[in-house]
TrEMBL record:
This is L-cystine uptake protein TcyP. Its main location: membrane. Keywords: Amino-acid transport, Membrane, Transmembrane, Transmembrane helix, Transport. The chain crosses the membrane at residues 6-22, 34-52, 72-94, 106-131, 186-204, 225-245, 265-287, 367-387, 393-415. InterPro entries: Na-dicarboxylate_symporter, Na:dicarbo_symporter_sf. It is a multi-pass membrane protein. It is found in: Membrane. Belongs to the dicarboxylate/amino acid:cation symporter (DAACS) (TC 2.A.23) family.
């Protein structure tokens, strides 16, 4: 009987996918299809949990089948990340007029990512204080206790690594290993290797132009094929968002959300405020924030549902180049770096909020100016090296809490609402990388203002 219900649920998903395909054939805009998929996913997920109950065998079996669409789509995105980043960066560097522009571009991107993370830490501290959050208010169940033990074990494993050692992990020692995405810093390692190839090609252009011309022609041909693959994969976005959102809503622990509702509200208040700060920065640099917002909404929608900064890289790059008018180099480097360093949500707001919550449990005044300054600086520095240990927000929190002398095990108290908050954090992370690319391109005077002002969305400019 269980299999019959599971089959019915799968047929329902296929019917809804058929609806999205029909909308595509009717030339409904990509943005509308993405948000339609998200809305349907929320409703379907809530209905499935209401009918079958959280953790039931029917619901578990249904979500396993649904993950073929959702997780399968994310895997398709992940598989094109390395070739897209590598070829795009090599091509962008080959087209640079001067190699010194590369250093300036990377400097601006990293500077914006780290600076906004510092601001995000302040926002996280402020939100925790305004909402009067404290770890003592949270009752630890078995799941939280187990998560705390796991975190303490992870901390023991990484305790010997310093920030310089984590940064050293950015440098590739086996590029073929990094092409598999095996290491947490694989994307940045690929970026560094691609930069080396690009710079080497510029050198060959001066001494052996005929060889460089052959290589450049090959890169351009491969780039065309890869961009076509990207277009094909991105066309699946509405279906992926539908399945991902359904799985997330259907498996959400609503009781945990009710118990920790104050922290959820405080987290999203901080995320929203930081997002507004991003828009203010866009305006300060002479660009229309509302135009920017309209262009990036589909990307943020996918980041929100997928909870994967790395998986969002192809859509991130495509939006920057084709909707915001960002040049190839800035778009690729900012999307790649932003997925592994300077993450405003995971490495900025979240660790800062946890530190303020946990500080009173060990007799530290979170209102102390010394504590706040130390916390902000450590958060900003740690965000640069957190990719070396992997694990996203949890490991960012471990680094910050351990550096502040706070108990890392208490970071497991929020496991029941981790997925819900992580959705907002990921969207903010991705937006931070897009802001860094856009502002850098503006500063470098490489921004195509005509494309930026064009009211068409990213996908309508790429044929999706």
């Amino acid at each position: 009987m269980d299999n019959l219900f599971i089959l019915i649920n799968v047929v329902v998903l296929l019917a809804l996918i058929g609806l999205l395909i029909y909308m595509q054939k009717k030339h409904v805009s990509f943005s509308k299809r993405v948000f339609t998929g998200m809305g349907i996913g929320i409703v379907l997920g809530a209905i499935l949990q209401a009918i079958y109950g959280e953790g039931s065998s029917i619901l578990t079996g249904t979500l396993d089948w649904y993950s073929i669409v959702g997780s399968g789509y994310v895997r398709f995105l992940m598989v094109i990340v390395v070739p897209l980043v590598m070829i795009s960066i090599i091509r962008a560097i080959i087209n640079l007029d001067k190699t010194k522009e590369l250093g300036k571009m990377a400097g601006w991107i990293i500077g914006i990512l780290i600076s906004t993370t510092l601001i995000a830490a302040l926002v996280g501290i402020g939100s925790a204080l305004v909402f009067d959050l404290s770890a003592e208010q949270i009752e630890a169940g078995q799941a939280e206790t187990d998560r705390g033990l796991s975190i303490e074990q992870s901390f023991t494993e990484m305790e010997g690594q310093t920030t310089p050692q984590r940064i050293l992990n950015f440098i590739p020692s086996n590029i073929f290993l990094d092409m598999t995405g095996e290491r947490p810093t694989s994307v940045i390692a690929v970026v560094i290797f691609s930069v080396i190839i690009g710079i080497a090609t510029l050198g060959v252009q001066r001494k052996q132009p005929e060889h460089a011309a052959i290589f450049t022609k090959g890169i351009n041909a491969i780039f065309s094929v890869i961009m076509r693959i990207v277009t094909l994969v991105l066309r699946l976005t509405p279906f992926g968002v539908l399945a991902l959102m359904t799985n997330m809503v259907a498996s959400t622990n609503y009781q945990g959300i009710i118990q920790l509702g104050k922290f959820v509200i405080a987290s999203y208040a901080a995320l929203l405020l930081m997002f507004i700060i991003h828009l203010v920065l866009v305006g300060v640099f002479g660009l229309n924030p509302m135009t920017y917002l309209k262009k990036v909404i589909p990307v943020l929608g996918f980041a929100f549902t997928s909870r994967s900064s790395a998986g969002t890289i192809p859509l991130n790059i495509s939006a920057q180049k084709n909707a915001l008018g960002v040049d190839d180099g800035a778009a690729n480097i900012s999307a790649s770096f932003g997925a592994t360093m300077g993450q405003n949500g995971c490495a900025g707001i979240y660790p800062a909020m946890l530190a303020v919550m946990i500080a009173p449990t060990v007799g530290i005044d979170p209102l102390s100016l010394d504590f706040i300054i130390q916390l902000v600086l450590i958060t900003a520095i740690s965000s640069f090296g957190v990719a070396g240990v992997g694990g996203g927000a949890t490991f960012a929190a471990i680094i910050v809490l351990s550096s502040m002398g706070l108990p890392v095990g208490l970071a497991g108290l929020l496991i029941s609402i981790e997925a819900l908050i992580d959705m907002g954090r990921t969207a903010l992370n991705v937006n931070g990388s897009m802001v860094s690319g856009t502002l850098t391109s503006k500063v470098m005077r490489n921004l195509n203002h005509e494309t930026y002002q064009d009211k068409k969305s990213v996908v309508e400019n790429t044929g999706i």
